[in-house]
Each structure stands twice: as structure tokens, then as C-alpha cells.
Amino acid sequence: MALQDSDILKALESIALPDGKSLSASGRLTGVVITAGKVTCAIAIDPPEAATMEPVRAAAEAKIRALPGVTSALVGLTADKAPSKPAPPQPRATSKPAALPGVKHIIAVASGKGGVGKSTTSCNLALGLAALGLKVGILDADIYGPSQPRLFGLRGKPRMVGPRMLEPMERYGVKVMSIGFLIDDDAAMIWRGPMVISAISQMLREVAWGELDALVVDLPPGTGDAQLTIAQQTPTSGAVIVSTPQDLALIDARRGIAMFQKVDVPLLGVIENMSSFCCPNCGHISPIFGHGGARAEAEKLGVPFLGEIPLDMNIRETSDEGRPVVATDPDSHHAKIYKDIAAKVWASLDKAAKPAPRIVIE
Ligand code: ADP
Questions:
Q1: DSSP readout, 188-232?
Q2: Which atom of ligand 1 is nearest to the CA of 242?
Q3: 320 CA to middle of ligand 1, Å?
């Protein structure tokens, strides 16, 4: 007989919360979705409970995975309600999170808000690093709207290797993992909420990345609680901020800079995306969003400026078609810009140990 929600509840009866209550009876289990042997669900928590509830999450996942007929299980911690006290800033990390075996550098790509081209830039940055001859992976941590499968033109489900590791997909010489491979669009809804940390931590640690020089992590957009915690719990070598030249985006970008400083993640620099528009008909270049804003701002803040990517139809089209420009047109002007940025990022990883400038948001 097909697996039912009641089977999941029954299996989780023996899992106890820190207060002794059974997980099944606690009313905290939400969003159980069962599709062809794949089970996803979430455990509702208050944000401060994240650390104490992690063993419960892991135990629940193991229990579900062991059920007959289950091919994969993904249990997340979720906090849909705002925390009772004003939450961030979270406690400063006193110890660094454990390194990821085999992975030399993790590079986080963040943006102050959505739609600035963070995912497109992450994809082409990963390809640019690969073009330097490095072994590269990309983790799509943007669980609000995973776009790396589309950008890399990848479909299908990753295979399991061993009892609990997933094999990343691979395209254009880059290893790719995304929540988009694991759950359907509808199911992805259950991850919406301020805290989605455990799903990302799993994608980081339960994927057989193998030996990598660099793992690019495409973070969820914004600088809220979730991003802060991910930055804190990921052994990141350095972070890159993508911003459009608009003022608003720059204010948001400043928040991103401050966020990484809060968790002592070195800032490798700022990339200005959609910096100017080149008319495909006449070649005229128009700074439609006020070109140069990010460079000026980065200089003012003492943060490295990594480069400007123009707003160009070709970048949008190749991204939407799963043919990213660095992979499919590596000698083009745009590919060169991304590759130059990748080279700067790679070079700056060595210097990343230096203390970053302190920035105060008024
Ligand atoms: P984010 O990850 O910040 O939400 P995306 O990378 O998904 O943003 O980009 C949003 C949209 O903008 C996509 O349709 C993408 O193709 C397009 N885009 C991103 N960068 C550029 C660019 N430099 N020129 C043209 N279109 C771009």
C-alpha cells in the first residue's frame, strides 16, 4: 500500500523532543509531502531552538528514510512566525563551523534583495573559476527560488551514493546541487519562512562534492535572519555581494556587507550587475541605472570592487536557456568580464584572512 501521512506520524512517535514530548504528538510536524517514495516535511521551531532541535531533525529524517518504500527523505527546521523577541543580531560565532572535507574554499554569493542577478552571476562566476582550471561546484542555497538547474540547463534527480549521500549533477565541468532537484515547486513552498538553515546545511554536508578547489554558494536574497545563520554555520572563505547600481540596491548591499562582518566572514568584494545597457542595434551604451554607483560605494566603504557586468539581452537569453555565456561563448566580451571577476575572487581568497573594514549602517 502507498505510504500515508499516518505512516510518517507513526514512525516519528518514538522520537522525543528535548522536553520529552513525542515529535508526532507535539503538533510541530508540518507540511508532510509524499511523492513516489520521496518524503519531505518540516519541524516548526522558534529560531533560538535551532541548535537543540537539529538532532531531532536528523533522527526524524533517519527514521523516515528507514521506512519501507521511502527512497529519499528531507526534513527541515522551519520558523514561520517571527521570533518573539527582536531576533537578529544573532550571537556571534564563537567557533568556526567545521570545514567541508575535500573542499578548499567556499565562496558565498549574496545580494541585498532579489532580482539583482545574484544567481546568474553565481553561475557565471563558478564557470569562470572552472575556466581558470579549478575544480568547482555550485550549491544553490536560494531555496526561495532555486534557479541553478535552469541556468545550467539541468533536469532530473541526483543519484544517491551510499546510504545518505547525494551525488551532485554536473554540467560544463561544474558540479551542481540545488533544492530544485530534490523537491517539486509546490513542495518548495514548505521551506518558505525565515529559517531554512537545516536544508542548506544538509545540501552542503550530505552531497558527495569530492575534491573541490572552490564551492560557490548562491545564497537566498536578502540579509535577514536566515542568511545570517547560513553565513554563520557555513565554513565560508569569503563572500561576494552582487548589487545593481540603484541606490536602493546599494543600501541593501551595505546591509549585506555589515552582515558578513557580523559573522566574521571576509568580504571579497562587490560586483555591479546590470551596470549599463548596450543597445543591440546601434551599440550605444546607456547607464540606465546610474552606472558606477557600486564602484563608488565600494571605494567609499573600503571594500574591493570586483567588476561591472553590463545589462545585456545576450546574458539574459543564454541564462534562461541554460547556456551560460562563460561556458557557451567563452571568448565573448561578457565571458571575459566574468572570467576577470573570477580571477580577482580567486586571487583575493589568499588575502581573505585580513580583517575587513568595519561598516556602520545608520
Ligand atoms: P537573483 O538571483 O538576484 O534573483 P537572477 O540571477 O535570477 O537574479 O536574475 C534575474 C533576471 O535578470 C533573470 O531573468 C536574468 O536572466 C536577468 N539578468 C541577470 N543579470 C543580467 C545581465 N547582466 N543582463 C541581462 N539580464 C540579466
A1: HGGG-SS--HHHHHHHHHSB---SEEEEEEEPPSSSSHHHHHHHH
A2: 3
A3: 9
Q: Give the mutation target among 138, 216, 246, 319 for probing the ligand 1 site: most ligand atoms within 8 A of CB.
A: 319
CATH superfamily membership of 5-78: Fe-S cluster assembly (FSCA) (3.30.300.130)
pTM beyond 0.85, yes or no: no
Q: For the chain, give every residue range classified as CATH 3.40.50.300.
A: 103-352
Q: Which atom of ligand 1 is nearest to the CA of 310?
A: 23
For domain 103-352, give the CATH superfamily.
Answer: P-loop containing nucleotide triphosphate hydrolases (3.40.50.300)
C-alpha torsion 49→54→55→58, nearest 10: 150
Max intra-chain CA distance, the chain: 70
What would the pLDDT profile of 118-170 be if each residue is shown by its tens digit?
Answer: 999 999 999 999 999 999 999 998 877 889 999 999 998 889 888 778 999 99
In the chain, CATH 3.30.300.130 sits at 5-78
pLDDT at 6 over 80: yes
Q: Give yes or no for residue 312 CB within 6 A of ligand 1.
A: yes
Residue 20 alpha carbon to ligand 1 centre in Å: 48
Among 291, 292, 306, CA closest to 339:
306
